[in-house]
Amino acid sequence: MLELKPQMFGPFRCYVEDDNVTDVDYNGQDLWLTYKDNTRRKILPSSHGITELFARQFAQRLSNLTGREFNPMHPSLEGETRQLRVSIMHEAVSVSGISICIRKTPPKVRITQEHALESGYVSEEVLHFLKNCIRAHMNIVVAGEPRAGKTEFCKFLSMYIPLAERVITIEDVLEWRYKELRPAADALQWKVRENFSYEDAIVAALKQNPKWIMVAETRGVEVRHLIQSFSTGVHGMTTIHAEDVSRIPQRMVNMIDDSMMEQRFLNNIYDFVDVGVLISMKREPDGSMRRYVDQIGMFDHAEKNIFALLVSDGQRIEESVIPLQLQRKLERAAIKDIWQDGGAYERTQMA
């Protein structure tokens, strides 16, 4: 992992050090800042002080530190520190000018239980539901648009996993940081790379005695191995891009790109994925964006594939019924009412 000295950031430094800023995006001319409330602010060239020369120098320094080429033949460059992820695109492909994106990935959980309840991110009974899903070892897929905060939600929810249950996180960019957040937990943090793909990581993880396998984002054929891992009795979470929880199974089927296996794989998804959660964003009157748990659905496969929508627009749907196989999971975990506090939870967070 890289160590970037503060002075290397030059005109970026004040924005990188601003705790309210989550993303710093330079498009070759203007600078755009994204804040914790998901509002964005444009900084003009006359104010941000980033010149074309500095942008090239910054890219060259990162290239030297990473040992990777950055030129028209190798137009993309990435680097990570414990706190930041930096991505740069060369002007050979970014014709509007060199593009620099700096995203903060601090080892902290931005969502706290208290703030989640006070801000309307989640209602109390829906939070009980989610915590009971962890207690019952249900497999959870979190959906939403880009920047909705899917990984942050997973980080928050994973804090309720008992410390003695081994967790393996698999990411291409280290954002979950589960072991750093819970140093007393039995946990492994894995990072995929060119010679160690998501598929490789999931297969290897099964040999490391995990209780939970967490894949930060599922994008492609690795979904087949993830569902296979769930079929062995390992539990887990992942995130995908989808606009409705009911679309999660078909979205996952589309990733395998194998028409001969589609129906069989769809059945497996309904069999081994238990819960779908949709994280949405809503613009408030003051212009800020509020993230919240919008939908929760449950999947089951008996004689046919079953989907039950239990939460919509953040509110419980009273008449909805939990599928039979998932009721049995709750019974085995001694959970009488999934909407009520299920008892003590291990939960430790680092500030």
Structural write-up:
This protein has 351 residues and is of the alpha/beta class. The chain has 2 domains: 6-104, Beta-Lactamase; 113-332, Rossmann fold (3-Layer(aba) Sandwich), CATH 3.40.50.300. It has 12 helices and 15 strands. The chain has helices at 13-16, 45-48, 52-66, 113-119, 124-135, 150-158, 178-181, 198-205, 222-231, 248-256, 262-272, 324-332, and strands spanning 21-26, 31-35, 40-43, 76-80, 84-89, 99-104, 140-144, 167-171, 187-191, 212-215, 235-241, 275-283, 289-301, 305-312, 315-316. It has a 9-stranded mixed sheet, with helices on both faces. The chain has a 6-stranded antiparallel sheet with strand order 3-2-1-6-5-4. Strand 12 and strand 13 form a beta hairpin. The longest helix has 15 residues, at 52-66. It is globular and about 65 Å long. The model has no long low-confidence stretch (mean pLDDT 93).
CATH top level class name of the largest domain: Alpha Beta
Assembly of the depicted chains: single chain
**Average of pLDDT:** 93
Number of domain modules: 2
Helix-and-strand structural type: alpha/beta
Q: Could you state the order of secondary-structure elements as H and E?
A: HEEEHHEEEHHEHEHEHEHEHHEEEEH
Biggest sheet layout: 9 strands, mixed
Structural Rg: 21 Å
CATH evolutionary superfamily of the largest domain: P-loop containing nucleotide triphosphate hydrolases
Number of H/I helices: 12
Quick overview of this protein structure:
The chain is of the alpha/beta class and 351 residues long.
What does the secondary structure layout of this molecule look like, with pairings?
Elements: H1 13-16, E1 21-26, E2 31-35, E3 40-43, H2 45-48, H3 52-66, E4 76-80, E5 84-89, E6 99-104, H4 113-119, H5 124-135, E7 140-144, H6 150-158, E8 167-171, H7 178-181, E9 187-191, H8 198-205, E10 212-215, H9 222-231, E11 235-241, H10 248-256, H11 262-272, E12 275-283, E13 289-301, E14 305-312, E15 315-316, H12 324-332
GO molecular function: ATP hydrolysis activity
Protein name: Pilus assembly protein CpaF
Family: Belongs to the GSP E family.
